[in-house]
Amino acid sequence: MFIGHFAVGFGIKRAAPEVSLGTAIVAACFLDRVWPLLVAADVETAKIDPGNMVLSPLDFVSYPYSHSLLITLVWAGLFAGVYRWRGGSARAALWLGLAVASHWSLDLVVHRADFALAPGLDMRAGLGLWNSVAGTLAAEGSLFPAGLWLYLSTTRARDRIGRWGLWGLVALLLTSYVAALFGPPRPNVDAIVIADILATALAAVWAYWVDRHRDVIPSYPASSPVSGEARLP
Ligand SMILES: [Zn+2]
């Protein structure tokens, strides 16, 4: 999945307003940040295979350490644990752990049956939505506005950066999405990995920047877990 993961990042702000949008996006996209590093290190394997899926030319030959169910739960626990260890609230840490884990379930919907449940286990899962352009656009086209709405209804711009910087980030994500789906195919896996690392690093830094220029609307105060919990979606 592409912008569906960013939708989760935006939506986390409603559940845990104290969490920066940048951290929430890093959590929701965490498995895809681990994947290119492991591919670059030859721990995981992918190859270009035009027609592999209608909307993805990549054959994910092996990626059990970034995307298997078991290891996803480990990554989620580690992410939440580090956030908590660095002074974050238990509640926010829990939501960030869920954001990391959400990645697996969203990818499960779009990938073909190449998802291992655990390293070394030859049971594969995947529902293959990437073989349907209309289905993919309907799923991600529903998720992204919903996540963005949650963020917009939880924060308000403090200044121009908070207002226009947010829409610039949205434009960046949508442009990247359209380019990934319908743009010219990239020549090799290295090009995909490098573009992936750079684009998501830019999006995360941009999100941290924008979020510092937006305030949580008082009805969702970061310091009032009781009030926040009462409004959980
Ligand atoms: Zn992924």
How would you describe this protein?
The protein is mainly alpha-helical and 233 residues long. It is built from 10 helices and 6 strands; from the N terminus they run H-H-H-E-E-H-H-H-E-E-H-E-H-H-E-H. The strands form 3 sheets. It has a two-stranded antiparallel sheet. Strands 3-4 form a two-stranded antiparallel ribbon. Strands 5-6 form a two-stranded antiparallel ribbon. Residues 224-233 have low confidence and may be disordered. It binds zinc ion (ZN). Zinc ion binds next to helix 3 and helix 6.
Could you list some keywords that capture this structure?
mainly alpha, two-stranded antiparallel sheet, 10 helices, 63% helix, globular, disordered C terminus, binds zinc ion
- Low-confidence runs: 224-233
Give the helices and strands as they follow along the chain: HHHEEHHHEEHEHHEH
Number of helices: 10
Helix content: 55-70%
Strand coverage percent: 5-15%
Main sheet summary: 2 strands, antiparallel
How many individual β-strands?
6
Ligands (ions, cofactors included): zinc ion
Give the arrangement of secondary structure elements.
Layout: H1 3-15, H2 21-28, H3 30-40, E1 45-53, E2 56-62, H4 64-67, H5 69-85, H6 90-110, E3 115-116, E4 124-125, H7 133-152, E5 155-157, H8 160-182, H9 189-211, E6 214-216, H10 225-230
Antiparallel strand pairs: 1-2, 3-4, 5-6
Bound molecules: zinc ion.
Zinc ion is lined by residues 31-32, 67, 103, 107.
